[in-house]
Design a protein that fits this description.
13% helix, AOC barrel-like, 207 residues, mainly beta, single chain
Length: 207
């Protein structure tokens, strides 16, 4: 008899729990994360252009000075391990000035084909609800030295780099980006004031 009562009590508690969970979900729904929509514009070359903005120094979240940043392990950098890398974290804004995500920038030197140090810059832009976009400029080769601008969707060879990968809404895209830095002034403490524009031009890799 006791066993039967325990089973009934368990079933009643289980059913009551389901009812209470349903009522709670109805009257106290889970908060919805804000959706950040793309502001990309279609171009005549079949790509989409979107620009992400970073205000300096307001949007910089911790910026270690190059002289105080620890060197990479020798096997990951040069044979002598003397080069250093600068890692930065930024807030990202849309054209209207609204903060829509975060971006990381890794800048340093890596060994070139002949062992000579070459500068390389890696960006990753993370937009909640849309995904992450990874880009690089420097030591990654995307073709011969004499590239026509059309090969980089209109960007020049000197200040642009390829889109490496993307997730979620940025998955399956190919293209290039350009990093444009406009410095208005440098204050007495050495802080640069200006804006960084990450201009992306991407299209589906299936095209």
């Amino acid at each position: 008899m006791v066993g039967v009562l325990l089973i009934r009590l368990f079933l009643a508690s289980f059913v009551l729990g389901l009812i209470l969970t349903g009522l709670a979900a109805r009257f106290y729904p889970c908060p919805e994360s804000p959706r950040v929509y793309s502001q990309a514009a279609a171009l005549t070359n079949g790509s989409r252009e979107e620009t992400f903005f970073i205000r300096l120094p307001d949007d910089r979240i911790g910026s270690p000075r190059a002289a105080s940043t620890a060197p990479f392990p020798q096997q990951a950098f040069s044979p002598v391990g003397k080069e250093r890398i600068l890692a930065e974290l930024f807030r990202v804004r849309d054209a209207e000035g609204t903060i829509i995500g975060l971006a990381t920038r890794m800048n340093g030197l890596v060994p070139g084909p002949l062992g000579e140090p070459q500068p390389v810059t890696d960006w990753m832009v993370l937009i909640p609800g849309r995904g992450a976009l990874m880009m690089s400029r420097g030591a990654i080769e995307t073709g011969g030295e004499r590239e026509f601008y059309v090969d980089r969707l209109g960007f020049s060879f000197e200040n642009s780099g390829p889109v490496i990968a993307g997730t979620d809404g940025f998955a399956g895209l190919t293209g290039f980006y350009s990093e444009e830095v406009e410095i208005d002034n440098v204050d007495a403490s050495g802080q640069a004031h200006g804006v960084v524009r990450l201009v992306t031009r991407v299209r589906s890799a299936k095209l």
